[in-house]
Write a structure and sequence with these properties.
six-stranded mixed sheet, Immunoglobulin-like, 3 domains, binds copper (II) ion, mainly beta, binds CU-O-CU linkage, single chain
């Protein structure tokens, strides 16, 4: 996602932060360029290794290989040319225990640079997968080995931090199991949502180019909303829950890589308690999720436990995850994810008995009952962040818009942004102030913050238009950590900043 990776930066990246300063990364790395700015810690500094060595470790290693490459993926009818980690989306499941070492070899067979970021994991900074910041990009034909301790149990995912590659099939689920989990469920399903365009006549890069080309256009912005992808469809893309809900019209919405006409089937038995791990891997779409004939008990969000909350439906922004438990009824049920504020939906089938499959346009009544947004959830006792006065508060004003297509934090795009400094050991408060008419799912790397006042522990939180969301985190994971909107197109056109530990 860092928008500007020049070859010079690539070379400098290998030399670490000290090398970068001289190579023109003045904006992000500040030595002497903006006066009085603190020197920032090198992601490869010794302290990063020391903090890693102090993490609880089981001694076990989980190994995997990822081979990003051009593939043909069958979405269940439409077969699309895309880039993937396998011939399906999502890519390979990586599953480790808390405290295990995760060892992943990446073999880049794409025609372009790539990287892998481990979304939500509080890992060592030099393994965070941000090219130009924590590592050089992985060049075509190149390899990179990621190796890190996965400290906290939960539902996570991985994806490139390079351009708009996440909007192809380049994503996969990473689950960290809790050895002490009571496991009050009989079965587990993993359900991944995605908005899909690649291979349908345009690539995500084409979409980005057409959004950017609006910079040169004139006219009334309201009329432009919804033309994001250059599609004929003029969706307004607003939602009572979110306000401005998206910029891009997608031809398909997927659950576990399948279109609603040929849905994935999840098989269970009546009476079983199933833990469903829900992951929004979309790039520009929030999903409103419900299972026909069932209520959902939300037990976790972004990996961390919450005080269980029962609901009919649940709204997940891009990059957010939730685990829910359901007690299965007898029959066949639609699991539906509405593209919030857009036209279209994703569908999977839950089958525990006889019955006809649901129609592709099934609309369970639960979708229009109580819809829970994760921001209202409460942290479970054992993960509540203790009350402490913040040592430092950073205000992040979210700005920008469609015309020109450019999104900012504190008035700057990432390439011009001054890092937000933090010091090791501080309690840091971030205030996300949304000055735009769209919602932004704001994500912080390497930390799980707490929503104000005993709210949920999360790494991605929806900030509604004209709303301010306050979160606290403990700065105990030294490094340079991207903080950005998880709308991929917003991040890529500037809505990102570095939360940077001082050297
Ligand atoms: Cu999933 Cu920097 O993001
Ligand atoms: Cu955004």
């Amino acid at each position: 996602m860092p928008p500007i990776i020049t070859r010079r930066r690539l070379l400098a990246g290998a030399a670490g932060l000290t090398g970068l300063a001289g190579a023109g990364l003045a904006t992000a790395w500040g030595t002497g360029v903006f006066d009085g700015a603190p020197r920032l810690l090198d992601p490869h500094a010794e302290v990063v290794g020391r903090v890693e060595a102090a993490r609880h470790r089981t001694g076990r290693t989980v190994s995997a290989t990822l081979t990003p490459r051009p593939v043909t993926v069958d979405l269940g009818g439409p077969a699309v040319q895309t880039w993937g980690y396998s011939e399906s989306a999502p890519g390979p499941l990586i599953r480790a225990g808390a405290g295990d070492l995760v060892h992943v070899e990446v073999d880049n067979r794409l025609p372009v640079d790539t990287s892998v970021h481990w979304h939500g994991i509080a890992l060592r900074n030099d393994m965070d997968g941000v090219p130009g910041v924590t590592q050089p990009p992985i060049a075509p034909g190149g390899r990179f080995t990621y190796e890190f301790t996965a400290p906290d149990p939960g539902t996570y995912f991985y994806h490139p931090h390079s351009g708009v590659q996440l909007d192809r099939a380049l994503y996969g689920v990473l689950i960290v199991d809790d050895p002490s989990d009571p496991g009050r469920y009989d079965a587990e399903w993993i359900v991944v949502f995605d908005d899909w365009v690649d291979g349908t006549g345009r690539t995500p890069d084409d979409v980005l180019a057409s959004l950017r080309s609006m910079a040169g256009m004139h006219g009334d912005m309201g009329g432009m909303m919804g033309m994001g992808g250059g599609m004929a469809g003029m969706e307004t893309m607003t939602s009572p829950l979110l306000g401005g809900a998206g910029d891009i019209t997608y031809p398909h919405y997927l659950i576990n890589g399948r279109v609603p006409a040929a849905p994935a089937t999840l098989i269970g038995k009546p009476g079983q308690r199933v833990r469903i791990r829900l992951i929004n891997a979309g790039s520009d779409t929030a999903f409103r999720i419900a299972l026909g004939g069932h209520r959902l008990s939300i037990t976790h969000t972004d990996g961390y436990p919450v005080t269980p909350a029962d609901t009919d439906a649940l709204l997940l922004g891009m990059g957010e995850r939730a685990d829910v438990t359901v007690t299965l009824a007898d029959g066949v049920f639609p699991l539906v994810a509405l593209a919030e504020g857009k036209t279209g939906q994703a569908l999977a089938v839950v089958r525990t008995g006889a019955g006809d499959p649901p129609r592709a346009d099934a609309h369970p009544a639960e979708l229009d009952r109580t819809v829970t947004m994760t921001g209202v959830l409460r942290a479970a006792e054992q993960v509540r962040l203790d009350e402490r006065r913040p040592d430092r508060t950073h205000r992040l004003e979210l700005g920008g818009g469609m015309m020109p297509y450019r999104w900012t934090i504190n008035g700057s795009t990432f390439d011009h942004a001054t890092p937000l400094p933090v010091a090791q050991g501080e309690r840091v408060r971030l205030r996300f102030v949304n000055r735009t008419t769209m919602f932004h799912p704001m994500h912080v790397h390497g930390h799980t913050f707490a929503l104000a006042g005993g709210g949920a522990r999360k790494d991605t939180v929806i900030v509604l238009p004209n709303q301010t969301v306050t979160v606290d985190l403990d700065a105990i994971n030294p490094g340079q950590w991207m903080t950005h909107c998880h709308n991929l197109y917003h991040a890529e056109t500037g809505m990102m900043i570095n939360l940077g530990y001082r050297a």
